[in-house]
Design a protein that fits this description.
heterodimer, A: globular, B: alpha+beta, Dipeptide-binding Protein, domain 3, four-stranded antiparallel β-sheet
């Protein structure tokens, strides 16, 4: 018997750890996409009609050529768009999102206050939506064609169709003014002082600060905006989950599981929902992105000082650094969500990470 | 709890030039002169009394004895000189222009003079502006304040008080709320009425209404005419015309508006409109604009133009108008005093159609509409104007060759007589002379100017029964120091 030796190259890191390779590939794509987002945001903002100098200085100071010249030079407005973009990008790499024209404060500082306020309601809304949507969608699918299914389909359609602004006003009018079961507008009762900032999420920060009274007040103020925001996503998720579950219910392996006499709860939990998880994950990711970037109307009604309010104020004041900051944050939000969804795809489905 | 749609940008008086900032800072800081409640005709002493020379070029301010800042130190002339020259040094501040052409000098510890090269009867009104608040100079300088362009006290002033007003700034978040508490060292005329005042950012007026009705707030600043009409007897509404004027601009530059450039066309438009019908769109507190100067200021006319279709028709024929379609541009996303521009524009369109003038509407966002307006590139448009400070001289820019006049392509030599009236009003040295000149200017503008004043929107301050003495003033919208609890 002779021994044969073959010279085998050592497997590369991503060959041994396919999931790691998958993550690196997705990260690379995300960086490129982020660069694209900064470019699109910058160019579109630069092309917005209007005079940012007059907006910043006011008409009085803007009529003084020396002041205008100093301002233009200081903010690099005399440079070409590509030059300004490169300057912007260089600053961005150092975490500098520019200075708000309206307030003179760093945009990053202002976003650091606004983003957590929106994240707090959006997170709660997506959790509520997913829980309710999952339950209603699965029930509707299991009762396909029957009265329960018809009712749930109509209800979910209503959730999708009712204008959010109208719903917010009506909910506030009903639950606060008429029934008196909801607190007033804002993130906290006026008698409360905001908690020391750790995460920017008041509920979390109150817990971290050991203040249960503050926590419950913050939670109570969250309830109505979250309810209003959730109704749309509940409608969306219910319909989508119903369709996804129906598709899985028609597969052979589910029929086999049923034929073997497995309990219905186990079939749903272990096989149906797992089988439908990829499309559900996709739509949850999209819905979360929509929630984070589309709260402006709800924030206006409930006096919620979040990203939507900041975006609106920046736009009407022609605060271009503010507008770019919001564009960038929204872009990052979508990229992070997509990245997270892609990662979960890889975890849930080996075919994805090995492809 | 006061609900208002925030325009708050800073807690630094010298850098502030927005309504919410004025409202808040007026409670924290004193100025040399002030206005009594909603009176805006004549400034009264606040930190100082004032005397002027005959030429109205030198104004001597004598500080009241013993007035103190919130740290207990006494207000003196050095504080005044520092505060006013600090604003002069901040060239990028929106409020900087208020100090243009004014020289500040200390006479002694309690006396200061402000001098100008030309007569400046508006100076007393200018120094009532909260941007010209008197700061504790030592405290501010210790925290980065200077009189050059390198002042760095804004952050400090956003979290602390350096004033002598009845309240202290307890905390401020420019996106959500500002909290005021009483100043224990205050020794002025208006003792704080509340232990805590919260000014909350509520952008949506419908939410302000619900908050007020539900008891979550005690005062709403931005309700429109229809909303205040919903309030029952449990609420008090203080309504009065604001200092804003909504007007039509008829461009006199032939290169911009070939048809509109004939002055007879502006006359045809002016007499084609039914102002009472337009006013129906404006709500509580609003009045017809009787001229370019709103009713609370010196020189305002007693009555406005009335519809006269015959006169309009004659003027239209003389203008050479031959049925061309005229485009009416206006900002569609920027209601003023609760008045939405789109329905007003639609009604103007309908009324002009009755008079034989064909108009197409061109609404656009404020941000994109403002540049062509300011650049004088709009042939026919609807805009608004508010005073830079509470004085009728803020409406002289409508004159030929002036800031707003030029936006209508109206050069100084287009109407030398009105240009002369502007100069006379600006350089008047006595109140009587000024009043007459302002009135003549306003009358001439109504007869020959390229502007058609339409509406002075109302301002409505709605309060619950728990608050009394709610008063509006152009400078600070709501006079917080005057507020008192009921009973």
């Amino acid at each position: 018997m002779t021994a044969t030796t073959t010279s085998q190259k050592p497997a590369r890191l991503w060959q041994r750890w396919p999931l790691l390779g998958y993550i690196l590939r997705r990260l690379g794509t995300s960086v490129l996409l982020m660069l694209g987002v900064t470019m699109v945001t910058f160019v579109l903002t630069a092309l917005v009609p209007g005079d940012p100098v007059a907006a910043a200085l006011g008409e009085g100071a803007a009529s003084n050529p020396a002041t205008v010249a100093a301002y233009v030079e200081e903010h690099g407005l005399d440079k070409s768009i590509p030059e300004r973009y490169l300057i912007y990008l260089a600053a961005l790499l150092q975490g500098d999102l520019g200075t708000s024209i309206k307030t003179g404060r760093p945009v990053a500082t202002e976003l650091a206050t606004a983003v957590p306020a929106t994240v707090e309601i959006a997170l709660c809304a997506i959790v509520v939506s997913l829980a309710v949507g999952l339950a209603l969608g699965t029930i509707a699918a299991h009762h396909r064609g029957r009265a329960t299914d018809q009712v749930l389909r109509v209800v979910s359609l209503l959730g999708l169709s009712v204008p959010t602004f109208w719903l917010a006003i009506m909910a506030y009018h009903t639950f606060f003014l008429r029934l008196g079961v909801a607190p007033g507008a804002g993130r906290l009762d006026p008698t409360f002082t905001p908690p020391p900032t750790v995460t920017g999420l008041y509920t979390v920060d109150f817990i971290l600060g050991g203040d249960p009274v503050g926590f419950f007040d913050a939670l109570a103020h969250l309830a109505l905006p979250v309810l209003v925001l959730s109704l749309f996503t509940i409608g969306l998720l219910t319909r989508f989950i119903r369709a996804a579950v129906l598709e899985v219910l028609d597969t052979d392996y589910i029929r086999a599981a049923r034929a073997k006499g497995l309990p219905r709860r186990r079939v749903i939990g272990a096989y149906v929902l797992r089988g439908a998880s990829l499309p559900i994950l996709t739509v949850v990711g999209v819905a979360f992105g929509v929630l984070l970037s589309g709260t402006v109307l709800v924030e206006a009604v409930f006096a919620w000082p979040g990203l939507g309010t900041y975006a609106f104020n920046s736009a009407i004041n022609l605060d271009l650094p503010g507008v770019m900051g919001v564009g960038l944050v929204v872009g990052v939000i979508y990229l992070v969500i997509n990245f997270a969804v892609d990662l979960l795809y890889g975890v849930l489905d080996p075919r994805v990470r090995l492809a | 709890m006061i609900d208002t749609a925030f325009s708050l940008e800073t807690g630094d008086p010298g850098r502030n030039y927005v309504p919410t900032g004025n409202m808040m800072l007026h409670a924290v800081y004193d100025t040399l002169l002030t206005f009594e409640g909603s009176e805006e005709d004549e400034p009264i002493p606040s930190l100082a009394t004032m005397e002027k020379n005959e030429d109205a070029t030198s104004f001597t301010f004598t500080l009241a004895e013993g007035r103190t800042f919130s740290d207990g130190s006494t207000v003196n002339a050095d504080d005044v000189v520092f505060s006013l020259t600090r604003v002069q040094g901040m060239t990028e501040s929106k409020a900087n222009f208020l100090m243009n052409g004014i020289t500040v000098e200390k006479v002694d510890d309690m006396t200061i003079t402000l001098t100008t090269e030309d007569p400046s009867l508006e100076l007393p009104a200018i120094v009532t502006n909260p941007a010209l608040s008197i700061l504790n100079s030592e405290l501010v300088q210790d925290n980065g304040g200077t009189t050059g362009d390198d002042d760095a006290a804004e952050d400090f002033l956003g979290s602390a008080s350096a004033g002598s007003g009845p309240y202290l700034l307890d905390s401020m978040d420019i996106t959500s709320r500002a909290v005021l508490v009483p100043n224990p060292e205050y020794n002025g005329e208006y003792a704080p009425g509340f232990e805590r005042i919260v000014i909350r950012n509520v952008t949506e007026s419908a939410t302000q209404l619900i908050n007020l009705q539900g008891g979550d707030s005690h005062l709403a600043v931005d309700l429109n005419g229809a909303q205040v009409a919903e309030l029952g007897e449990d609420f008090t509404v203080t309504s009065k015309p604001s200092a804003q004027t909504i007007f039509l601009l008829v461009n006199q530059n032939e290169e911009v508006g070939q048809v509109t450039a004939d002055p007879k066309f502006a006359e045809a438009v002016r007499y084609a409109l039914n102002y009472e019908e337009l006013l129906q769109l404006a709500g509580e507190g609003s009045v017809q604009a009787t001229g370019v100067i709103p009713p609370m200021f010196t020189g305002a006319l007693d009555s406005g133009v009335a519809e006269d279709l015959e006169r309009s028709k004659t003027a239209l024929e003389e203008s050479g108008y031959a049925g061309e379609t005229i485009t009416l541009q206006f900002p569609s996303d920027n209601p003023v005093g609760g008045v939405e521009f789109t329905p007003v524009a639609e009604r103007v369109q309908a009324q002009l159609k009755n008079a034989g003038i064909t108009v197409e509407l061109a609404p656009a966002p404020f941000a994109s509409q403002i540049e062509p307006y300011v650049g004088g590139q709009e042939a026919f448009s609807m805009w608004y104007w508010g005073p830079d400070f509470a004085d009728s001289s803020s409406f002289l820019p409508f004159g030929p060759g002036e800031k707003v006049g030029l936006r209508a392509g109206w050069e100084a030599d287009a109407d030398p007589e009105i240009a002369e009236l502007v100069s006379t009003a600006a350089n008047a040295t006595s109140v009587e002379e000024r009043e007459q000149a302002m009135r003549e200017y306003a009358t001439a503008m109504q007869e020959e100017g390229p502007f058609v004043p339409l509406i002075v929107p109302g301002i409505n301050l709605a309060s619950s029964a728990t608050v009394t003495n709610v008063q509006n003033n152009t400078n600070w919208t709501l006079d917080i120091p005057l507020l008192q609890p009921a009973g």
